[in-house]
Amino acid sequence: MDIEKNDGSTSAVDKFDSKLQIELKLSKEELANIKDKRKAGVYYIDENGNLEFMGGHFSETGIVFETGHFSNYTIVEYNKTFDDISTHWAKDYVEVVAARHIVNGMTETTFEPDTKLTRAQLATILGRTFEIKADQYQNRFKDVPQGEYYTDYVIKMSELGIIKGYEDGTFRPNDQVTREQLVVLMMRAYRYVSKDNTTINAQNTFSDMSEIADYAKSDVNLAKAMNMISGVGDNEFNPKGNSTRAETSKLIVELLKKLKKL
What we know:
The chain is of the alpha+beta class. Helices cover about 30% and strands about 15% of the residues. The protein has two domains: about 1-75, no CATH class; about 85-260, no CATH class. The protein has helices spanning about 30, 90-100, 120-130, 150-160, 180-195, 215-225, 245-260, and strands at about 1-5, 10, 15-25, 40-45, 50-55, 55-60, 60-70, 70-75. A three-stranded antiparallel β-sheet has the order 3-7-6, with no helix packed on it. Helix 2 (about 90-100) packs across helix 7 and helix 5 (about 180-195) crosses helix 6. The radius of gyration is 20 Å and the shape is globular.
């Protein structure tokens, strides 16, 4: 894109100081040819022909995404599944987050939906969901070294106050995440992105509300009121149970739906 200066000269611009929202227009026929819009997105094509997922959500006339530079882009509907989710309750959720490159498989053919989630994995998932990560390394935690797959996401999530460390200066990346912790962190991310600071006073949403930590009750109530979570068994939430990759995939999809990103 060329920008005209005050002196009448022009200057080519291909990068921006902040991201711009762009809509790629599509015809009705092109829109109709996309079978599952939740699994389609915009991809940046680099000079070597490699594709990088840029996100995007559909409008009535095309697909909207954010970018910090003008380049070549294409739209791809990516269908990815795994051998171990064919009969799993979370199959649809898993396929959506995999298509959007938010949660990867443990191998090319397995997802391990019932494997427990770690704090490092959750920070990475949240960062990928909202395209948020640190631009440079900061030594915020003594157990988060430079160069790990989760490092930039942990740093940025901590900087934003979405995920917090411990008083001893550690992050404990390999610790597992409980169900109540998962909901709290998801709702913090939701508020950061949506700027919606709605809260709900304590109420008996689940039969085991007394077991939910006080700091988590409002977020659990709100997530339930927004139909983002459901209980287990006899209307129990099981707050101290460890979160699984399947449960996290479902919550991410519900979060994106509430934000109108799907």
